[in-house]
Amino acid sequence: MIKNTSFIFFLAFLLSCQPENTNKEDFDPPYFRLQEFIENQAESLVGKQLAKEIQFNTSKEIVDINPTEEEWLEELDFFMQADINRPSLAQAYFIEKSENEISYSLKKGEKSKVKFLKVQFYEPEKPKTIEFLIGSENTFYSSNTEGWLEVDENTNLVTKFEVKGEQKVVFLDPIIMDLNGQVNN
């Protein structure tokens, strides 16, 4: 009898520790829906050519490709990583709004790799530019990535983007990355 009662209390305790909103479908995103925006862009950009310049430290490569939808998602993955619409981050950012801009800054004491996100608009729900800053650090390692993209006012498609990053491990030289992309017809 004591074992059954203990088990029931233990089970009740575990259930009470569950977050109130565990179902992602029930989550109403409080921030700009960046992941959804990028997924729509990847679908719409199929058939467009991407001219990109990639630089790792001193090595530089220039490539022209015609990405598939999946490849567009890979090319724009850093922007997907900058999406802050997660239940655990629902109250983690200061929101500053103006007529044509909204920015999100991580509150002091909150933990997230995305430190800053800014969206400028041509008009409501019609992005003009998107910028982000991602960073993490500990005693032995630091990483910072910043990026921006521009959207054409007429086509509502990404026209160019840039992502810059630096990773530093103690006692090793930093790894510096710079990616520039230009979307062509």
How would you portray this structure in words?
With 185 residues, the protein is of the alpha+beta class. The protein has one domain (30-184). Helix content is 21%, strand content 44%. It contains four helices and nine strands; from the N terminus they run ααββααβββββββ. It has helices spanning 2-16, 34-44, 69-75, 77-81; strands spanning 49-56, 59-65, 93-98, 101-106, 114-123, 126-137, 141-151, 158-169, 175-184. Strands 2-1-9-8-7-6-5-4-3 form a nine-stranded antiparallel sheet. A hairpin with a 6-residue loop joins strand 7 and strand 8. The longest helix has 15 residues, at 2-16. The relative contact order is 0.15. Mean pLDDT is 89; it is low at 3-22.
Features:
single chain, 185 residues, alpha+beta, 9 strands, globular
The biggest sheet, with number of strands, parallel, antiparallel or mixed sense and barrel status, is: 9 strands, antiparallel
Shape: globular
DSSP, total strands: 9
The side-by-side strand order for the widest beta sheet comes to 2-1-9-8-7-6-5-4-3
The structural class is alpha+beta
Strand and helix order: HHEEHHEEEEEEE
Return the average pLDDT rounded to an integer.
89
Q: In whole angstroms, how far apart are the ends?
A: 74 Å
Based on the structure, what is the oligomeric state of the protein chains? single chain
Please give the radius of gyration in angstroms: 21 Å
Poorly predicted tracts of residues: 3-22
Supply the number of structural domains.
Answer: 1
Q: In percent, how helical is the residue content?
A: 10-25%
Secondary structure tally, helices? 4
In terms of DSSP E residues, the strand content is: 35-45%
